[in-house]
Amino acid sequence: MAEEGDVLTNLDPVQSGNGADTQPTAGIISQYVKDLSVENPKAPESFQWKSQPEMDVQFNIGARKVNEELTEVELKISANAKVAEGTAYIVELAFCGLIGMRNMPEDQMHAFTYAEAPRILFPFARRVIADAVRDAGFAPLLLDPIDFNGLYVQQMNQRNAEAEGAAQQGAVPPAGSEN
Predict the structure, then answer these.
(1) Among 8, 49, 64, 154, which residue's beta carbon has the most beta carbons within 10 A?
(2) 107 close to 156: Cβ distance less than 8 angstroms
(3) How far apart are CA 83 and CA 56, in angstroms?
(4) Mean local confidence (pLDDT), 3-20
């Protein structure tokens, strides 16, 4: 039975016969806006501009260990809308999720932190961005879905290839071989 101070009780872990919690468990404990900035620097003139804005949208995923079982995953999104006349709006959001993980191998914890948790958080962050842009006086910005799992696999493959290349460059040829 989970103790009162156990923050992972919402994850409904499977208990083994002896009462020990040994099954791998992961889930979102809570989610929240950590920081939100909305700028409408050329208002009210920007409401008269007719050209379609050029969008620059940037994403970044960060994680910070809170304790042994809790990690804060931060999804940062920055959207900048520019037209020939100037910047229409800038929105910057740090949307976070407090995730709990227990009894998981390190590689699975890493994948959950940088792929699965952002995938779960993104629709909520997307809504915050859309509402912020609408509240600034513009049509809501509806961000396209992102394949966080695909990006994670691509980034891990790239890191592995770089590590292999570095290992090969630093490898010493066996004795008696020629270069």
Answers:
(1) 8
(2) no
(3) 11
(4) 46
CATH topology of domain 31-145: Bacterial Protein-export protein SecB (3.10.420)
Above 90 in pLDDT, residue 125?
yes
Contact 91, 53 (CB under 8 A): no
Q: Kindly report the average pLDDT of the chain as a whole number.
A: 85
Residue 35, CB-side half-sphere exposure with 13 Å CA sphere: 9
- Across 54-76, b (16+ Cβ under 10 Å) vs e yields eeeeeeebebeeeeebbbbbbbb
Q: Dihedral sign for Cα 151, 153, 157, 160, please.
A: positive
Stretch 30-34: mean pLDDT, rounded?
97
Residue type, 176: G
